[in-house]
């Protein structure tokens, strides 16, 4: 199944497994996003309702595109300006193109399985973070009086640097 998707002011024809470079989208490498603006969808020669189709993609990387040179010149005025620009882009791998109903039914089952395991890990990780914050707070309180004591003392003056001895030059006689 294929779809025509609009993102970043451009249109892309995509199918499952395709890799495309689009204007920068929010997210980090490995995140899954849904491209919502589907203009056209179909399979082979048959077209289907684009409103019911969703396109999900995985972010491969955030990168910069090729450099575009901007050169300005005014004839006979000795005026030349050269600039370059590299636009930020996102590399996407299309994971699925299909009906939103089928994906919504499959998604809760996967999420429920995923939610059970991370909850146990989150409960274990949370007390560790809390204890480290409690330990860090008293250290900060103890460190504050030391800083105040250090500022009360006048800084020691450094001895002036010695000047180098003048070079002896030999005169020709």
From TrEMBL:
Residues 96-173 are annotated as: Disordered. Pfam families: Ribosomal_L21p. Keywords: Ribonucleoprotein, Ribosomal protein, RNA-binding, rRNA-binding. Residues 100-137 have a biased composition (Basic and acidic residues). GO terms for cellular component: cytoplasm; ribonucleoprotein complex; ribosome. InterPro entries: bL21-like, bL21-like_sf, Ribosomal_bL21. One of its GO terms (biological process) is translation. GO terms for molecular function: rRNA binding; structural constituent of ribosome. It comes from the Bacteria. Belongs to the bacterial ribosomal protein bL21 family. PANTHER family: 50S RIBOSOMAL PROTEIN L21 (PTHR21349), LARGE RIBOSOMAL SUBUNIT PROTEIN BL21M (PTHR21349:SF0). Part of the 50S ribosomal subunit. Contacts protein L20. NCBIfam families: L21. This protein binds to 23S rRNA in the presence of protein L20. This is Large ribosomal subunit protein bL21. It comes from Qipengyuania vulgaris.
């Amino acid at each position: 199944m294929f779809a025509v998707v609009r993102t970043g002011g451009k249109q892309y024809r995509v199918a499952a497994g395709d890799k495309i470079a689009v204007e920068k989208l929010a997210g980090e490498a490995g995140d899954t996003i849904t491209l919502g603006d589907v203009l056209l969808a179909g399979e082979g020669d048959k077209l289907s309702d684009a409103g019911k189709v969703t396109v999900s993609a995985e972010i491969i990387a955030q990168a910069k595109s090729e450099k575009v040179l901007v050169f300005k010149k005014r004839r006979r005025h000795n005026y030349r300006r050269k600039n370059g620009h590299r636009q930020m882009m996102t590399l996407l791998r299309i994971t699925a193109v299909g009906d939103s109903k089928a994906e919504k039914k499959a998604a809760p089952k996967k999420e429920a399985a995923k939610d059970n395991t991370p909850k146990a890990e989150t409960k274990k990780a949370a007390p560790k973070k809390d204890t480290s914050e409690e330990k860090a707070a008293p250290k900060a309180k103890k460190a504050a009086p030391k800083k105040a004591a250090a500022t009360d003392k006048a800084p020691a003056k450094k001895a002036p640097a010695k000047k180098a001895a003048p070079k002896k030059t030999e005169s020709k006689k």
